[in-house]
Amino acid sequence: MRSMESSTGPSHDGSPSRSSKRLLHIYPRSSQTMEELADASIHLIVTSPPYPMIAMWDAQFSLQDAAIGKALEEGKGNEAFERMHLLLDRVWKECYRVLCPGGFLCINIGDATRTVGSEFQLYSNHSRITEACRAMGFTVLPLILWRKTTNAPNKFMGAGMFPAGAYVTLEHEYILIFRKGDKREFRTPEEKARRWESAFFWEERNRWFVDLWDLSGVRQELGQSAGWGRGAKTRETSRAQEASKAPIESEAIQTPEASRIP
Ligand SMILES: C[S@@+](CC[C@H](N)C(=O)[O-])C[C@H]1O[C@@H](n2cnc3c(N)ncnc32)[C@H](O)[C@@H]1O
To answer: What domains are defined for the chain?
Structure first.
């Protein structure tokens, strides 16, 4: 976890923003319980959980519920899928608790296609999460479909060119957007002024508030040596988690775009 202060940059008229300091805390442990956070204290949650039924996350889910590994071994895909989501449901419930009325939960998630046992099928993570969040009391808002094309040679699954065993290739993920309760109200002059400072430019609004994003990834220049991949990052995170349950202090990096998002 980190704790850091940062400047949010100037407001639209070029003067320093009044809310020019932000503090960031990072807690390196499960979000199923966030006891450090008071009820109704958070305005925005943006998260990318492990994707159920994508093989790279099997071990993490199975560590939390051994029945998941067993279900996968026995070819019970639907049971494994549901058990993985029951673990994530705890996180969404905790998100609901800590969000302020009118606060947002944004979840980046992809669906999975997989053969378990002898059966190939789609595991629709985005619809399972949407229905769980709706049942918890979230208001479901329009979602973003994030197109991520793949050039992988095995992109055409199933029987390739032959009907009826050829399957469409998944080349998108989702950003699901939920709100806790009704729209936030801005009553005091200070709240109204801050809302004005947070406004998007017209061009930004047109770019980001569309339901189809077609953004390809960019290489992250994190300063590590070549070959430093996702797995290595995950291992380091695990080491950090073991090393300390306390917040980590560090410096904030904030993009100009981020500074304008309310
Ligand atoms: C799809 S990845 C997202 C990675 C992240 N967006 C990044 O770029 O590093 C899912 C992440 O969630 C973490 N994770 C899994 N279960 C979690 C939990 N209960 N609470 C918090 N994080 C969790 C995993 O360790 C993994 O780092």
So the answer is: 27-184+216-246 (3.40.50)
